[in-house]
Structures are given as C-alpha cells and as structure tokens.
Amino acid sequence: MAAIAPDRDPHEQKLRALRRLIASQKRWDLVFACIGVACLMVGVLTLVALFVDMAIDGVPRLNADFFSSFPSRRAANAGILSAMVGSTLVMLVTAVVAVPLGAGAGVYLEEYAPRNWMTDVIEINVTNLAGVPSIVYGLLALGLFVYQFGLGQSILTAGLTLALLILPIVIVATREAIRAIPIGIREGSYAMGATKWQTTAYHILPYSTSGILTGVIIGLARAIGETAPIITIGALTFIAFLPPAPIKAEAPFVSFEWLTSPFTVMPIQMFNWTSRPEEAFQANAAAAGLVLVVMTLAMNALAIYIRYRLRKNLKW
Amino acid sequence: MLFLAAFVSVATTLGIVFILAWESVVFFREVPLWTFLTDTMWTPLFSEPRYGILPLLSGTLTTSAVALLVAIPMGTIIAIYLSEFAPFTVREVAKPILELLGGVPTIIYGYFALLFVTPLLQRIWPELPGFNMLSAGLVMGIMIIPYVSSVAEDAMRAVPMALREGSYAMGGTRFRTATRVVMPAAMSGIAAAYILGISRAVGETMVVAVAAGMQPNFTFDPTEPAATITAYIVQVALGDLPHGSIGYQTIFAAGLTLFLMTLFFNVLGHLLKRRYREAY
Fold first, then answer.
1. B2 touches chain A (CB under 8 A)
2. How many angstroms separate the Cα of A73 from the Cα of each of A76, A240, A291?
3. What is the value of pTM for the model shown?
4. Which residues of chain B have pLDDT under 50?
5. Which pLDDT score, from 0 to 100, does residue A246 have?
6. Which of residues 108-127 of B touch A (CB under 8 A)?
C-alpha cells in the first residue's frame, strides 16, 4: 500500500486543524499575560517617573538649611522647619486620639457587640466613612471644631480632623487582627475563670497588637499626606515661627499651649510652593515633596514589613 | 466605654450630615434649589453672583471620566493578571508596589500632573493649556488603579476553585477560564470595585485643584481647564471670605452635593460587594 503524502491524509489534516486551534487559544494566554505585565509596568514606571522627576528638581535644594529654615519670600532661603514640626505635632495628636478610639471600637465590634440593629448601623457606618472624600471631613471640622467648639485653626483641630479621617482604617485593621485569633484562645481563657475584660486585656489585645500597629501606621501615612481637609479648616500657609515648646523650665514642666497654636504641615507647604509660578519655588516644592514621599513610603514599607513578619511568625 | 468608642464613627457621620445641612440652609434660603441645580454659571465671588452647580459638576464628571477610562481597564487587567496568571513571586512583589502607588500623598500626584504630565502632553499637543482636565484625569486614573484592582482581585479570588477546575477540565485555557468563567462569576464584586473607583475619583481634591485650574467652566472637553466641586472648596478656603457670608456658605452647599454623590456610589458599591460574598 503506497503511503499518501501527510498533507493529503484527512486524519492528519484534522489533527493539524485541532493543533492550530489549541495554539491560537494558547496564544491568547501569552498575549494577555504580556498585557498584564505591561499594565503593571505602567504603574511601576509612573512611580519611578514621579520619584525621578522630583529628585531631579528637588535634590539640589535638599541641604541642612532647607530643613532648618522657615518659609521665606525668597525661594532660596525658604525651608520646611515649621512644616516638619507642624506635621509631627499634628500626627502626635492624631495618633493619641485615633489609636484608643479605633482600637476600642474594633474590640467592641468584635468581642462585645450584641447582634442587633445598632451594631449593624455602626458597621455600615464604618464602611461608609472610609469612602467619604477627605475634603468633606475638612468641612465637618470647619463647621464643628472651628466654629461650634471654637477651637480655631489650631494643631488640635487638625489632629482631631485627621483622627476622624483615619478612624475607619484603624477600626478595620483592629477587627481583622482580632478576627484572626482562634476561638480556642478565648475558650482557654474563659475556662480558667477569666472575665470578658480580662480575656480582652491579657489575650486579645496583646495578640492583635502588631495587626493594630500596622493599621495605625498605614492610617498615619495617609494622614501625613492629607492636604485637602487641612486647607479647608483654613490653615495658614506662611508660618515663620514654631509652636510653643511642650516642655517648660518651671512647674508644671509640661505645657499644652502648642495645641492651640497656628501651624503649617508638609503637604500644605508643598501645595503653596507648587501653585507659585516661579520655578525656584517649584524646586522647593519638589524637595518638600521628596521629603514627604520618603516619609510616607517609609511608613508604608514599615507597615508592609510588620504584616509580612506577622504572617511568617504567627502560626496558630 | 468601648461602645462609646464605636459610637464615635456614627457620631462622625451624623456630624457630617448635620453640619453640611445646617450650613447649607443659610445658602438655600438665599438661592432656590432649582436655580442651584439648573443655572449654568457658577460665579459666587463676582459682584453679580450666579449659583449654578452645573459647571462644577461638569468639571467633576469630566476629570472623573478621564480617570476612569484609565483606571477601569488597567485595574481590571491587573486584577485578572494577578488573580489568574501571575506566578506567586510576581504577586508577592506586585501587590506591595501597587499599595505604595495608592499610598503616595495626592498633593504629590498634583505636582506630578502639573509639572511632568502636562509638559509631556504639551510636547505632543502644543496648544494644550497649562491647566487642563486631561492630565489631572490621567494622573488621577493611575492613582485609582490600586483601589480598583485590589477590590476586583479579591472578588475574583473569592470565586470557588471548582469553577476553574471545571473549566480547565473542559479544555479551557487560562484566558478563556478568566474571561468566560471567573469574571462572570465575580461580576458583582468587580462592579463594586468600579463604583468605589468612581466615588474615589469624584471626591479627589488635590490633583484637580493643582493641575486642572480653579476656574468654573461649563464644558465636557478634557483639554480645557475647569474647576471641580472639590477644587472650588479649596479655592474658597484659601481666600479670606468671612464666615456667614453667602459666598462662604456656598462651600457647604457644594460639599453637600459632593457628599450625596459619593454616598450614593458608596452604598451602591457596598450592596454589590455584599452580593458576591453571598453568591457561593
């Protein structure tokens, strides 16, 4: 029997058609994987471009004077001392307010809250608050803290505003950390005769500390870069002095006068410089932005690192 | 005590609603609601003030639309890629990078849009004005990608493995499984991701305030400068209008509009998100 040429054989032809079909389907896999990587690269490249662009403009301005000078009408003399001090103090107030409130709310919702409509309302509320634009918090602070409570455009007002802003982040992080604790820990504690509060204080809180910490750091990283709510409460942009020192020579040694002091923060200072037409000021903006971005990225990286360690070390 | 801590969140919402409504009442006593919604001029700071929210709305919608045209396709592709295609190590590296992209302060993105993206676009398109909604929208879109991709990815990962196994057993390739099986199954979660992205774009402030200009402009052309609701609030807050004047109260009316818009999108998004949790 004479062999027929392979391309005449109907069986062979069908096989080839099938292989072509499979190959063309698989080609889509490859094409899509390439598109996916390309999209990821766009994100990464944007991050790189942002960083490099600011570094080119800003690095020449980054010297010791820039960190130790007040803002000035002359771009070359201007610095970020008051903005750095302001940011630090505002973050302090924010953390002091947001940590107990956020952790408390998280513990309540996970451990204490009864299953009723009130709890549902609180839960829906927390998720919704996370989606409220930050500028709306600014309007709230303007109406409530500045005008109703008369706190003025102070560090206290800004700290409280940002604390409310990051509260949902801290609450959600606390709840997730607590939820990861197995029920056996609680049962063990109760079996030893501990009360609910003792269980919470000696077991639940210590075991969820690093989770809460991650949430707080991410929240603060967000708060330190927030500009809109601080502008809305009417923070001044030209502050050439420092708030009163918190520690005094005479009794009672601690002073809370700085809470009511006017202030400026890093993002406001940067906004102010960005919106000026002179290029010299824009170089200042780039330098301030560089400092700000390094601060937030460092905080975010710390949070990611803590979470990574947590996932590695914690095996229930 | 702990209940009080939890209640602070409810009090915040009540405070927002109360303050916005209370301060807007002063405004709406002076300006009828109908005028506010239909007038096409927004010039509260001029000697002959006109109070129509439409120009601010058009600015908000245009910048958001540009942002979403970037964020939705790219966010979806990244979500599919990370959930269905990427090897483990790529995902471990890519997710923190995306998180960092979402963690950069918005004022930095504003600076980037104004002083990097706009000059870049002007090289291709010389007649583009220095302030324009296009570059603000583009940068905002990149900024929103992590929000969209992380929620969409969570939704896709919640799709049971058995569905994928079924598809592969029928000879489906990865691409087919992703687009014909996983995506339809996760659709409500993906839709939630889009809606949360919209809400984020509508409420974004600093990028548009810096890069899109602060002049209210009733246009849907992204190459023109225009103010958004948020940019207008910033503009008034930077000025020195006295509290109680009608010009000042406009920011609360604008804020109320913004709050209601984002609230609508957020509630819709969460309803959709809840659906995919219950599906399986």
1. yes
2. 9, 11, 21
3. 0.84
4. none
5. 61
6. 108-112, 114-116
Tokens linked to B274: 């809840």
Residue A91 in this model has a pLDDT that exceeds 80: yes
Cα-Cα-Cα-Cα torsion A142, A148, A152, A153, nearest 10 degrees, comes to -10
Q: Given CB atoms, is A45 within the 8 Å cutoff of chain B?
A: no
Q: Do A129 and B243 touch (CB under 8 A)?
A: no
Domain count, chain B: 1
- What distance in Å separates the CA atoms of residue B42 and residue A310, rounded to the nearest whole number? 53
> Of the candidates B209, B227, B114, B115, which has an alpha carbon nearest to the alpha carbon of residue A228?
B209
Which structure tokens are listed for A100?
């107990």
Tokens of B93: 């590296």
Lowest model confidence (mean pLDDT) among A129-138, A230-239, B218-227: A230-239
Cα–Cα dist A153/A217, whole Å: 25
Q: How far is A251 from chain B (nearest CA, A)?
A: 33
- Residue A118, classified by CB atoms within 10 Å of its CB into exposed (0-12), middle (13-18) or buried (19+), is middle
Q: What local confidence, expressed as pLDDT, does residue B53 receive?
A: 80
Run of H or E including B140: helix B133-157
Q: Distance between CA B238 and CA B72 in Å, rounded?
A: 33
Closest CA to A264 of A290, A243, A280: A243
Across the range A204-213, mean pLDDT stands at: 86
Query: Length of chain B in residues, anyone?
Result: 280
Which helix (H) or strand (E) covers residue A169, if one does?
helix A155-179
CA pseudo-torsion sign A99, A101, A104, A109: negative
**pLDDT tier for residue A310 given thresholds of 50, 70 and 90:** confident
**Domain containing residue B235: CATH number:** 1.10.3720.10
How high is the mean pLDDT of chain A? 82
- Whether the per-residue pLDDT at A262 is higher than 90: the answer is no
Closest CA to B202 of B98, B71, B74, B12: B71
Q: Which of residues 59-88 of A touch B (CB under 8 A)?
A: none
How confident is the model at residue B278, as a pLDDT?
52
A180 and A214 Cβ atoms separated by less than 8 Å: no
What are B246's two structure tokens?
A: 């009608």
User: A66 vs A55, which has greater pLDDT?
Assistant: A55
**Does A46 contact chain B (CB < 8 Å)?**
yes
pLDDT at A233 (0 to 100): 82
Asked whether the beta carbons of A1 and B50 are under 8 A apart, the reply is no
Give me the domain span that covers residue B97: 2-279
- A152 φψ region: left (φ > 0), alpha (ψ -120 to 50), beta (else): left
What interface predicted TM-score (ipTM) does this complex get? Answer: 0.85
A228 touches chain B (CB under 8 A): yes
CA distances from A168 to A92, A132, A163, A229, B162 (A): 18, 10, 9, 16, 35
Give the end-to-end CA distance of chain B in Å, rounded to a whole number.
38
Nearest residue of A to residue B84 by CA position?
A33
B98: tokens are 């995306």
Q: Are A80 and A271 in contact (CB under 8 A)?
A: no
Under DSSP, the state recorded for A243 is P
**Domain A63-313 homologous superfamily, CATH:** MetI-like (1.10.3720.10)
Query: Could you tell me the sign of the dihedral formed by the alpha carbons of A102, A107, A112, A113, in that order?
Result: positive
Q: Is B6 in contact with A144 (Cβ distance < 8 A)?
A: no
